[in-house]
Amino acid sequence: MNIPHDKLLHTLGGTLTFAMIHPLGLPWALGAVMAAGVGKEIYDACTGGDVDPYDVLATWMGGAPGWWCQA
User: What is the tens place of the pLDDT at every residue in 9-44?
Assistant: First the structure.
């Protein structure tokens, strides 16, 4: 399986965002991960970068393990 380096970085970003914000509460952490994913793609759109909806999904999936561990 070959996962693009860019997607791995987005996943790591989602994981780290969740970990940093989680002490404030689960809703804040999930919201921060969602905002980070969408925000990065808005930044890419405004600066001429490559906009890819799968990057948003990769970021969100980075925060998913933390959410799953809350159950």
Answer: 999 999 999 999 999 999 999 999 999 999 999 999
Give the whole-angstrom CA distance, residue 49 versus residue 8.
17
Q: How far is CA 35 from the centre of its chain?
A: 8
pTM of the model: 0.89
> Rounded to an integer, what distance in angstroms lies between the CA atom of residue 34 and that of residue 69?
18
- How many separate domains does the chain show? 1
- Distance separating alpha carbons of residues 25 and 38, to the nearest angstrom: 20
Domain housing 51: 5-68
Distance CA 67, CA 69 (A): 5
Q: Which position has the token pair 């790591």?
A: 12
Q: CB burial class (10 A; 0-12, 13-18, 19+) of residue 21?
A: buried
